[in-house]
Structure formats: structure tokens, C-alpha cells
Amino acid sequence: MKQSIQHCTLSMKCLNIVYVLLGFSVLLKYACHVFVGTLAVSVSFPFFFLRCFPCVNADMWGYMSYYAPFIALFQFGWASTQVAHMTLMSQLTQDKSEQTELSGLRYVTVEFSFSLSHNVFMYLPCWLYGMFAGTLSSYLTCADC
């Protein structure tokens, strides 16, 4: 946790220096990060679930070379939107205790609550399927991997 906070703080300080040198305002900085990040996530995310058409008879390296750019683009976009939100918190208030409270509220509402509910809603159907379908070993084989 401490390392991630330090990483975000360092990223924000570096970005602030770059933006000051380029003359960007806070609003433009936020809009740039959110727009570019949202666009990158929106473009790359569907490719995670699409079949790799160019690598029909390819080996593992072919699949990796196809999916790796989309994964990198998604990670860039996700990090960009997260940095935008963290930067916005420091711009909303100059009081460190209020910044800490905003960060805590963001973590509790977004990271913890949604992650917990998504995990429960994904676990529940799988558990019900396992309960009513009998043993999974009769349905899943090594050929399914």
C-alpha cells in the first residue's frame, strides 16, 4: 500500500512538472488524462474477448504477440484515468486531511465496494452451477484447457 501511494505521488509530481513546463492548466490536464485513458480502455478492452483471427494456427508466442499490445494499451489507459482522479483530489483541496479523506472515500466506494460486489456476483453463479450440475470433472477435461 505504501509503495503504491509513493508511486502515485511520484507520478503526479512528475506529471505536474511536465504540465507546468508545457503550460497546461489543471482542467486541461484532467480532461486529457480522462479522455485519453477512457479512449485507450474503450478501444483495447473488447479485444480481450475477441478471437485472435490472424493467429489461427499460431503457437503461444503468436497469441502473446497479438494480445500484448492490447493489454499494454489497457494498462496505460487505466493508469491514466487513475492518475487523473488522484490529481483531481489534490486540486480540489489544499488541506492534507481532506485529501486523505477524499482518497479514503474513493478507495472504499470504488475499489473495495465494487470489487467485493463483483467478486460475490461472479462467485455465486459459479457456485450454483457447481451445486446443481454435479461434479465438474465430468464436464471439464484437459482438452478444454
Which terms would index this structure?
flat, 145 residues, mainly alpha, 2 domains
Describe the protein.
It is a single chain. The chain is mostly helical. 76% of the residues lie in helices and 0% in strands. The chain has four helices and no strands. The longest helix has 37 residues, at 96-132. It is flat and about 60 Å long.
Class derived from helix and strand content: mainly alpha
The proportion of strand residues reads under 5%
- Helix amount: over 70%
| Topology, number of strands | 0
Shape: flat
Any idea how many domains? Answer: 2
Mean pLDDT: 75
Contiguous low-pLDDT stretches (5 residues minimum) are: none
What is the count of DSSP helices, taking H or I runs of 4+ residues? 4
Radius of gyration: 21 Å
| H and E string | HHHH
Major β-sheet annotation: none
Distance between the termini: 35 Å
List the helices and strands and how they pair.
Layout: H1 2-22, H2 26-44, H3 60-92, H4 96-132
Helix pairs in contact: 2-3, 3-4
In short:
This protein is mostly helical and about 140 residues long.
